[in-house]
Design a protein that fits this description.
The protein is mostly beta strands and 285 residues long. 1% of the residues lie in helices and 32% in strands. The chain has 1 helix and 17 strands. The strands form 4 sheets. Strands 5, 7, 10, 11, 13, 14 and 16 form a 7-stranded antiparallel β-sheet that branches. The longest helix has 4 residues.
Amino acid sequence: MRFASLPKGFFVVASLICTTAAGLWGCGAADPAPSTGSGGGGGAASSNGGSSNNSGTGGSSTNTGGSNAQGGSAGASQGTGGTTTSGTAIALPLVVTTFYNNQGWFGDEEVSKEFKPGTTIIKQADSTSGPCAMRPANAKGRCVKVEYAPPAGLKVPTGGGYVGVFFLTTLAKAHPELMPPAKAGDANWGAEPGKNIAPGATKISFSATSETAGASVSFKAGTSGTGGDMFVVPETPQTLTTAWKEYELPLDGQPYGNSVVGGFAWVIKDTTKPVTFYLDNIIWQ
């Protein structure tokens, strides 16, 4: 158990491995995943409780899941370390859904209790129907449908609730030194380098829409904590409409090095209400 390397405020919650076998969004038991209930890990300063890495578990490639050292099954080559990487930088513009093929769930101490086998509180998958069937002809990458369904009887922490998903890469090899141990195919929270994105990006642009007008969703990029990114794009709240709209996350001149772990993330602060929304054309440029 790798407690020594966890930032202050981290605690352990159950984690799971999710699958889309036979079209089902099911999850099987895995080792516990480190998570945090305040501020930091995963990103931006926000309201009390933060929106950081109270992590759930790993998803398969482009579908559900993720954990702060656990992940689903997918493939992507990484090195080791989380701060440096080798190989040619990926030219801009970079399409997030092309290079970040795994997911890391995170949430406050109450909602993260529901990150357990069989959970359906988060469903995130590629889609070609609904708003995704009406995506612009020049849209790049994959169109993603996100559904959040609050569990019955959910309590909201005094400092406020939050739940979200980071778009992550995938571990290329096992990491028994982590707490809990991670295997190849799990989501990469920084045990291995992220993607080497060419310098010069000034923003992350994306399109979003929701099934009901008025859905409040925040967006950010960059993880923090051990093995995390050298930059953080703070949470930017948006009120989504039922029509596609373009948004931007400015990088504000921050250097992001040659290993970006958390390429993009969404966060919901009102964990008591169900939300369904769609993301498309997520691009570093």
